[in-house]
Design brief:
Oligomer: single chain
Structural class: mainly alpha
Number of helices: 20
Strand content: under 5%
Shape: globular
Number of strands: 2
Largest sheet: 2 strands, antiparallel
Order of helices and strands: EHHHHHHHHHHHHHHHHHHHHE
Amino acid sequence: MTSPKVTDTAATSAPEEGYERGLGSRQVQMIAIGGAIGVGLFMGAGANIAKAGPSIILMYALAGVVIFFIMRALGELLLYRPVSGSFAEYAREFLGPFFGFVTGWTYWLMWVVTGMAELTAAAIYIHFWFPEIPQWVSALVFLVVLFGVNLISVKIFGEVEFWFSMIKVTAIIGMIVIGLGVLTLGFSDAGDTAAVSNLWSHDGFFPNGIGSSLMTLQGVMFAYLAVELVGVTAGESENPEKTLPKAINTLPWRIIVFYVGALLVILSVVKWTEFSAGESPFVHAFGKIGIPLAAGIVNFVVLTAALSSCNSGMYSTGRMLRDLAANSEAPQAFGKLNSRKTPAIGITVSVALMGIGVVLNYVVPEKAFLYVTSVATAAGIWTWMMILVSHIRYRAAVDAGRLRASSFPAPGGALFSWVALLFLIGVTCMIAYDKDARVCLYVAAGWAVALGVGWAVLKSRNPQIAARRGDGSELEKVG
């Protein structure tokens, strides 16, 4: 009997796919950093603080640990086979074509609705300076401008995203430094009441109980959506073997500084009872400090964060649709690149659907952000689950000798992937108990029906599409 040989095919197949490798190390690193700083922190943290009080810091830290497990699992897969549209491709390889189909389309949906959320948040931030401008007008203007940026080239996208992320990083570090100054030196209008004791002096660290704190996890997880975007850049990175591990390994300190650190300082400077949903806690805190123009500057930064995430969403949706088209799981028109090597048709269709966010801002401006963030969170959780399950199946294939080991193995092997998977299942259950977030489960049910019908039609037209085994064995070479 012959024994299976480890295959190098998957690892060495070049994922050119017609894309331009126009994202340098500087841009990939900053995209990874920027992906961890979005509207979920700047805008969504206000509602989470109101529900959980200071314990929200612990929730962000807990979720951050799980996100790191997910990203290390993704990192191992990326260095095994760096491809654009990675999540769907790994699900297709290790779980079967149906899961690749569902994951690709669900990740696309996640970014479409996330784009709606970011447009909504950006429109709210514009109200800070121009309250007379309707939300839908601002949302429409931003949608058109970012659409133009994404059609030009991946280099322009990378450069715009680099500077968006640079603004966010610089600003948060500046906020932390100023907040520490208020705490230690006592200057500004907030100096008399600012104290670390604010973290426990107002009804305790868990003022509304541990249960209420845990119920914020679905909102907290939304804040981390986009950290996996670095995986989508794999097919357009100049040197993925070097840039991707570095980007992933810096995730823990990004979480510690930008989430845990920033919230520790903000909730020490201003007591948690002053924060509310619909308002950025960063803008409120610096308005309380009373530094001239500080609140306006912070509002500009959070506006930048929203536009950055929407920009990333447009980038990602076009790439995911192209991956689906390449696997005959979407109309072939989505697989075409324009003269600048960008998937223009896929981006255009996605942006058109993001325009629904403009309509929501016109019809229900007060509920638009909540509705779209809950749907995006559900879609993001599915994507993360597929990454984890694909990683577990990949490690089983490596242990069986069918596939070569990745040069970037996840610590703990498949164990931490199982831990993260159970955590995500728990968060999904919590969503069902939240009357405001529950709407996403109704949308998810409708989306599942649509995908089921779509898959049935696809199989009837192309029976070969469902022939793959989904255990990595197709890449196995027996000698």
